[in-house]
């Protein structure tokens, strides 16, 4: 398995920055990801909700009952006013229709009967409150717990999909932005299920029941009260149109701010050593200011919207007061009790009406979160596994680079310019050359971190339009204009020497399943990534089973002896055991975030141990021992000789003594191989390698094997 880390290879920061600035998403706004989506992203939540249809249905039904029970006590009050207290005449028409209460008031002198009716109404009211309380619990419980479950599923799916995307995706997007998607965006969707769905159900119920009640009891008054509802809908629609671009911008500012903060906090040591507090404060202030200004703009619009809703509610109150009062006074259809119910129900309408704005607002926010979350889920990995992928348990290790051309991104600068190289199984090949000449890039193509640029008839490059882009379309049988199928093209591509390809055991790496391939290739890089955890865990990471065993162990004594022995053997072979044993907690030492508590050389040795544990068939060491002292390198070298003896190995090194004994040394310059041969031959040839050797050893390039081990960094 490839040692898990990011960035997986170091790169020349300047040209990388140029590339990133030119054709990617420097601020992490994820515009490109939104483009991946078709249709309303909120609809894509449905499949996540479907498995929970039972609890969600209970949530919906109990919310509806809850709202009905909430409106009931007002009717009891109306009955009490009309039948018991004022005996003003007929009871509320709706109540009369239900048959729950008598239709005529109890005469004033029958005090006992009046009180019995009052107690009866009181009992019904208590029952309504009991129902209200139970359904309140059920509604909240089922909506909230289901929202948590959906959130968990969604986060896990998004994370899993994200971690399987190609390296180019991680290069082009900021970690802060990706974290925001997995955290705040997923949480916002949870909140939508938790709060908004319930609120919408409540609003529909309240409007339906109250509207129905009003139209039933006094149609003209009901119509008057309900008249503003379309106005509210119109205002809400306007509001959504207004607020949408603002929320997009706010989100972009949050992503920029997150990225800036996470960059600065991760780079705290650099900020301190260069005393760049003021500059960094300025940059944070600039991002924060942008966020503040956009947010203030959005608040202004939002508050104006809510204020206009208040006006409408006020207008409704006044119309009930005047028109309803008129109806009571002129003995129209309204009783005193119903008049009171109108007011009480108006208060019930008040909440959902002002909520409509908030719901629209939150819907908008949830929609833009859904765009990003489902945009990620719709993003395809640039490196794909073909349908009939090869997934061998082991590879022999013959490697061929055929006319390999490569650029990062569709419009990127050409990094590799036709590299041809044949490597035999078991051969150790050293790579030397100027910094930025493409050594790491070339070897990144082996485990398919990236795929070679496609040739004229190839169809694997996705950057330029997907699998079938070059075929110009197919018929229903999957045949193109010349009658050939995908498989025909594949076969042709595999066997056509004119196409650029990297082959392992004669098979184009694009025909392997990337994961199976990576499992057979061990990569150790100059600045290996350490996970926050113990040294034992970091070494065990190299072997899936050992890693799981170590993670499951409660403490050190729980790790089975055979697993622990293998970890220690790997550490001995990597020259790490001695320093680990000297640490106060030995293999249980916590390495800190990204391994900050270890030196660069110690991290490299732990990383080598991790790869040794994996026992790969092919090994790539990319400046893997550049940070260790010469003595330690000799120890590692002796063990590496063993490690590389029966497997194909690629070793990139600026310190030429590291690759001096390689079977063959390849010298690269500007994306091309300019020299190959053994150390002795290259020194004798007096070319670029000889010059480098000379500058490192301080000897003339006369074939005299000097000592390059002391001089590091033959860059450029
Ligand atoms: N992810 C990337 N995106 C864009 N450009 C990149 C990326 N990684 C590397 N490059 C560019 O590709 C070129 C080759 O880089 P590479 O790391 O392969 O060189 P190298 O020979 O290994 O250099 P060094 O010896 O310094 O490690 C450089 O110009 C570099 O800036």
How do you describe this structure in short?
The chain is 58% helix and 8% strand.
Describe this protein with a few key phrases:
single chain; 716 residues; alpha/beta; ABC transporter transmembrane region fold; 6-stranded mixed β-sheet; binds adenosine-5'-triphosphate; ATP binding
Secondary structure layout:
Blueprint: H1 13-23, H2 31-34, H3 46-49, H4 53-85, H5 93-98, H6 111-164, H7 167-172, H8 175-217, H9 219-226, H10 228-266, H11 268-273, H12 277-329, H13 336-378, E1 399-407, E2 414-423, E3 428-433, H14 439-444, H15 486-495, E4 501-504, E5 507-508, H16 514-520, E6 521-525, H17 535-540, H18 544-552, H19 561-573, H20 577-582, H21 600-614, E7 618-622, H22 630-645, E8 648-652, E9 664-669, E10 672-677, H23 679-685, H24 688-697
Helix pairs in contact: 4-6, 4-8, 4-13, 6-8, 6-13, 8-9, 8-10, 8-13, 9-12, 10-12, 10-13, 12-13, 19-21, 23-24
Plain-language structure description:
- This protein is α/β, with parallel strands linked by helices.
- Among the domains are: 37-378, ABC transporter transmembrane region fold (Up-down Bundle), CATH 1.20.1560.10; 456-499, no CATH class.
- Helix content is 58%, strand content 8%.
- It has 24 helices and 10 strands.
- It has helices at 13-23, 31-34, 46-49, 53-85, 93-98, 111-164, 167-172, 175-217, 219-226, 228-266, 268-273, 277-329, 336-378, 439-444, 486-495, 514-520, 535-540, 544-552, 561-573, 577-582, 600-614, 630-645, 679-685, 688-697; strands spanning 399-407, 414-423, 428-433, 501-504, 507-508, 521-525, 618-622, 648-652, 664-669, 672-677.
- Strands 6-7-8-3-9-10 form a 6-stranded mixed sheet. A 4-stranded antiparallel sheet has the order 2-1-4-5, with no helix packed on it.
- Helix 8 (175-217) runs antiparallel to helix 10 (228-266).
- The structure holds adenosine-5'-triphosphate.
- Adenosine-5'-triphosphate is lined by residues 9-12, 15-16, 19, 171, 408, 415, 433, 435-441.
- This is ATP-binding cassette subfamily B protein.
- GO terms for molecular function: ABC-type transporter activity; ATP binding; ATP hydrolysis activity.
- Residues 461-502, 678-716 are annotated as: Disordered.
